[in-house]
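Q: For a teaching handout, I want to show students what a protein-ligand complex looks like in token form. Below are the inputs, and the small molecule is NDP. Please produce the holo structure.
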Amino acid sequence: MSNKTLIIGAGGVGNVVAFKCAMNTQTFGEITLASRTISKCDAIAKNVKEKVGVDIQTSSVDADNVPELIKLFKKIQPNIVINVALPYQDLTIMDACVECGIDYLDTANYEHPDTAKFEYKEQWERNDAFKEANIMALLGSGFDPGVTNVFCAYAQKHYFDEIHTIDILDCNAGDHGYPFATNFNPEINLREVSAKGRYWQKNEDGQGEWIETEPMEIMQVWDYPEVGEKDSYLLYHEEMESLVKHIKGLKRIRFFMTFGQSYLTHMKCLENVGMLGIKEVEHKGQKIIPMEFLATLLPDPASLGERTTGKTNIGIYAKGIKDGKEKTVYIYQVSDHEKCYEEVLSQGVSYTTGVPAMIGAKLMLENKWQNKGVYNMEEFDPDPFMEELMVQGLPWQVIEK
Ligand code: NDP
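A: Here is the structure, written as tokens, with NDP included.
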């Protein structure tokens, strides 16, 4: 019997997931795309039909509302729910999946709308509920988190006895021509980059500890293959929380992301005047959240595709020991914004997130990645995922030193 797939969220990433699932209908079967705004789902379904020739059903749903989700799940009876709405909806969608006995996948960890925490705690706490319901949740199946976790697992499996240090390196050298815009949801993006930096290392007693830095305090210039030298800033990023638990012998892990000067200057200025605030303020008798208002003013990330040129390069740089000798391995993937747009009408950041979401779901439906409970990406065999990346649009490279 054919599978049924439900995608929630009709933004930039949802568009790519819809396209890529439609290109793999032998696995995904009947596809439904649901979001708060059904017209966005219909527009994506129309494009998929025109370009790929596959029909996608659409539906509206408020994913903050568990009973509404349960009603939709019972009607569609999907084998899997791919959550590419916002991180605020992770827990409600997970709870509805438990209630209905359906596998779950997402690309970003849960966040409470009022506090930016970037932690897996509340999702990991649902492990027993998922086990009891005999279903699986795969957390963080985007690029970072997602492919970066798989790159680490692949390095551990094929290149090292022990990995000592990992630097995750995320470069977007795309140019959309606007003085300031974010490549994915502005609220989530600006919360992430305006937060304090953090990295993990083992202290002299061998205990792991998180070291906090001021936002953008640590910068290093990195020479990205096919892109060139770029200023890269240390940020906290969620995949580090699970990688420190699962990578053998790790002594330090850091995450760096590139930013241009124009982006940083705009962000600082917006922060200084309070526009990045996530607490309500009163304006002429109306309550508004500055960050939400800013998101309304900024270009919709889904609209950047058509005008973005340049490349992304995301990878991991790992050092460690193999057969008693020191070794360095750099695994990376380069995507071209214009090629992504040509294929699925999206820029590279949505593309590099949506393709791994589809691959994670494909491996779950094909029983190549299956277990009961809540899992992060590096807990599974990286090989089938790495093979899929090669054929589904995200070919990668390894440099061994
Ligand atoms: P967008 O803002 O473009 O899209 C989000 C979509 O979710 C919108 O279509 C929106 O609704 C829908 N949505 C929001 N709230 C609800 C709700 N209550 N009920 C139903 N639908 C809702 O975001 P992106 O596509 O850029 O990002 C999607 C996800 O991917 C985010 O969680 C983001 O953090 C993650 N991400 C992960 C990356 C990774 O590498 N791991 C990289 C980039 C993004 P509406 O229908 O009204 O438009």
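A: Two things your students might notice: The chain is about 35% helix and 25% strand. The two ends are 48 Å apart (CA to CA).
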